[in-house]
Hints:
The chain is α+β, with helices and mostly antiparallel strands. It is about 30% helix and about 30% strand. An 8-stranded mixed beta sheet has the order 10-11-9-12-21-20-16-17, with helices on one face. A 7-stranded antiparallel beta sheet has the order 54-55-58-59-65-61-62. Helix 5 (about 740-755) packs parallel to helix 7 and helix 15 (about 1080-1110) packs antiparallel against helix 24.
Amino acid sequence: MKSPRRTTLCFMIIVIVSSQATLNLNFESIVYPSLLHEHELAGEDPVRQKRAVAMSRPAAQEFTVDVEVSFEDASFLELSKAYLNNLSFPVQGDDTDPATNILSIEVTTVCRPTGNETWCSCEKGYKWPQERCLHNLTCQGHDGFPSGHHCSCLKGLPPKGPFCQLQGDITLRMSVRLNVGFQEELRNSSSALYRSYKTDLETAFREGYSILPGFKLVTVTEFRPGSVVVVYEVTTSAASPELMRRANEQVTQNINQTYKMDSSSFQVTYSNETKFSITPEIILEGDTVTLMCENEVLSSNVSWQHVETGFDVQNSSRFSVYTYVLNNMTSVSRLTIYNITQDDAGEYICKLTLDIFEYGSRKKIDVTSIQILANEDMKVMCDNNPVSLSCCSEMTVNWSQVEWKQEGTINIPGSPETDTDSGCSRYTLTADGTQCPSGLSGTTVVYTCEFISAHGARGSKDIKVTFTSVANLKITPDPISVSEGQSFSIKCISDVSNYDEVYWNTSAGIKIYKRFYTTRRYPNGAESVLTVKTSTREWNGTYHCIFRYKNSYSVMAKDVTVHPLPLEPDIMVDPLEAVIPCTSSRHIKCCIEEDRDYKVIFQAGSSSFPAAKEVNGKQVCYKHHFVANSISCPENMDVFCHITNTANNSVRSPSMKLNLVPGENVTCQDPIIGVGEPGKVIQKLCQFSNVPRIPGSPIGGIITYRCVGSQWKVKKNNCISAPINTLLQLAEALMKSPSQDAKLPSYLKNLSISTNQVKLEVNSFPGSLGAIINILDLLSTVPTQVNSEMMMHVLSTVNVILGKPILNTWMTSQQQKTNQSSQLLHSVERFSRALRSEDSTISQPNVQMKSMVIKSGHPKSYAQSFVFLDSDLWGNVTINECQLEHLQPDSFIVTVAFPTLKTILAQDVPGKTFANSLVMTTIVSQNITTPFRISMTFKNNNPSGGVPRCVFWNFNLANHTGGWDSSGCYVKEVTEDSVSCSCDHLTSFSILMSPDSPDPDSLLKILLDIISYIGLCFSILSLAACLAVEAVVWKSVTKNRTSSMRHICIVNIAASLLVADVWFIVAAAIHNYRYPLNQTACVAATFFVHFSYLSVFFWMLTLGLMLFYRLVFILHDTSKSIQKAIAFSLGYGCPLVISVITVGATQPREVYTRKNACWLNWEDTKALLAFVIPALIIVVVNVTITVVVITKILRPSIGDKPSKQEKSSLFQITKSIGVLTPLLGLTWGFGLATVFQGSNAVFHIVFTLLNAFQGLFILLFGCLWDQKVQEALLNKFSLSRWSSQHSKSTSLGSSTPVFSMSSPISRRFNNLFGKTGTYNVSTPEITSSSLENTSSAYSLLN
């Protein structure tokens, strides 16, 4: 071949043909003539010699032919490639040689002129043979060709070949999806389905991929779910995307269409030589890392993936991906990771995608964390002495530099010194007094040494240096100016964390109460924050924040300005609510107790009205004449008055509710109270009502009126006398005062004096009692310590309000369902817990207190006695020394006894007979974490009133209003006049009488337990026997629809009662007569017992309704499936609904179960009625049905003439219902009787007997009494020879008895079930359709 000097470009193509005749190629029919050079290359034919000889017509053979094509115009190259790519293979031969097909045409080599030379390069998938890869012939030294590609380009085309050849064998891992359902057999390579799929698919694959150059084999390796994903491997020499696409098309055409191959789902994974480089080699945390991926395949579709996280790397602030093609020969993709972290370590995949090909390469990178060692944190005195800070790197790395930085409020620089060989750096600094003045003492400066690598990694270590001098405080800089009712806070910050005390005081030196400020200590300082949520005028002034350390004080001051403004509770409005006729008007007003320069307006919705000022002594009122006819009527509206002070802050009064009405029905009229319709209820402040009072004395509280006829009647009077109202206002102000603990002693003294003075007025002002209790409740939260004098004033006040003259007022309070008695008791407990006084005794007629201090060493036992002669009551409290040893020294034990409080607290628990006994409260000043046992003895003035129970007042019961609870307490001993109790906790204790349940340790209770457990055992065995009998005779007794439904009911009754008995035993096992061992289990047991017992009754109801339906609706017939659906819905659906509603309504308040048993609560919620009411209703319904059935059969209607046999059947029908229903009803009738107070022990015994033996009743009266069951059992278990003998004499009209009357067994059965003669084994079938349902009804319970 001569040098192609006259050509600008040439290329070689490889042609694969298949022929069954002599090969005679005519390339001019394949290549456009216009594409060929007009002059043939001298001395060479464009086509090489034929590579095969002519043969006769055997099987087709394949030939490979190299063709050289030259162009003068380089643009023809791409046109030729495009033409060849668009050919559809195989190409059929022309008329001259029809037996020859062209299978594929591939471009292998392209030669381009470059300067004075011609460079020839291989196309994808081809390479120069090794003998042509001579260094002096390659293009290696020329720009544009990267290293490593020296054998892809040669200088000049080899004159005699060989040209670019296919690369060595490659294995392509491929997959394709079949749109058919995946079957598990495809996982088993030995299954027939697997082999069938494999054979068919491999055949299609071979036919399709045989066009690939160098194709050798294809193998199916597995099938995966996802429809069906076929994974297979193809071994070939080269596979360009274009050729692979054609091969895939051939596969799709060759495969059987039943496989539904998805032609767009072909995927190829291709591994070739890819250069993957990482910079730097040693990667430090924080470095900028570059990953370079180079591939000979030209494509810009390159993706990166982090294998460990499955994260596809995208361009972001930390990741940069840049892909480009170098010299149209190499694809290059660069991944740059900035500030790399440990999370970025792991394996990375560089994946290049070209058509269906994927070229991947992966490498793993390790990230090393930087460890820097440095000095510990230091404290440096500013004394001008040098101090050295040092830090070193744990690893040997050529660090580019080491930097020292500092961060802090003061600047104290130093001089660095770095030793690169050792990897250490030292920083020397010197601090003097000018650099850290006294005001900045305790300032911490952070010095940071930072090692920096060549690729940007930074490792640093902080060294905290605290420079100390004189302490300094900072306080909130902004001025504080607020109005009354608003909040403010002052923050005081110290730069010293060492202090002995932090407190706040006023400019007068009065300490602020501790509840108003909090103090926090930090490693390098401290802060104290004074917070006032509701400011009053008392907070106007200067406040000092004081940090004390030994005898050194650091003080900062802050001024607070509080502008006068009434608080919302101090604004009195009139009316609170009023009725105004549409054509009338009314004065409305709001009043305060001071005269200030306030701006006041009235506002209703978006409308506002002016206010007129009126001064009456100390009281200032703002009024407005409200005219109703100017407003749309009728309407309900809320009116407020807005009061604004000079600081432009405002407060809104409580609302005044005005009800505008037409006025025709107004009957009550009063100039003070107002007008109203009959039945109208309104409230007024007692201050503006017609309650008698001393002029100038502002009374408090609210009075409620009701319009009755034409007059206003007092419905509820909660007015507070003027002295008590003043004390209540002072108490509320005291709670907002900065020095409330200092003012508390004098206030408690005034409260005691005022209460004694007005005790006779409490009946006239019922609200005074509640006000005093509210005052005690508020004040009990103030003190951290109470001395004996303060406690004496407290108990003096309590003595007055617990006196007998005020008991009537207590009765009124209890009728209004308040919890004031519980509130009072809680207040006394809080005061007692704060008592800090030596052994002391306080005695009043209605309250006594005794206390003791626990001394260190071996404390003596605590024993106190209380005697109230006027009430004829006494009590003792004892705590032995073993219990007191666990208490801290100087702890206080306080006991307070009340003779009359029991009467007040008792009214919270109706339905009980209470012993006339003391209430004794015992409190320890410290929190007790270990078990604590206390013993008490109460005098019992009512020994015959019932069974005593030891109880304590539980403040958490009854929605936190309080109630008596026996948990943790039990009766130790009962004598003629006393009851001894023992409890494992401390609070307020007493005794009560509970006649509704026997004492757990009594003989009656033991007897009832024995009867219950023996009876339950019999019941469970009987129910199991009943179910067994039903299983044995089921086929014999359920031959018709009605009989089948009857036995379904009996089986479900027995099963439900069996489950109920089992859960009954479980409930008893998890309760110890005083409290449940597991509350959750107790709730579950109660639920299932409730549900199961209800199911028994509802299945009895189902049985009765079924009988009533079959008797009354004779001609109506319902399918068996519908009857079953109704039966199960009624038998289990209704009980489930009732049970769920019961537990849902009561358990959130923890009043679902009883305290002394796992059963429905009666005392608190009457939850037991959720069982009793449905049960009794069902009993009444079934008894009624029984009476109706008997009446109907004895006195039949016209056309209804039951035979003698039918009457007998009817009595058999009604036996089960007639017997079982009263038994079940009587059982729970006695059970309900035991709930009520004063029930006799006979009711307990009868209820226990009937309840325990219900299973036996079911077996006898519900199962064995059934004639058909008897016959089926006798036929089942009698000797076969007897049956065969007697069957011979059996006839349709009459029968011979199975057992004669002389048979002992027969006599027993007949006597047991009420028979006096023989009975028939079989009964004639009634064929009349009109009597079919009637007969079925008669046999419903047969």
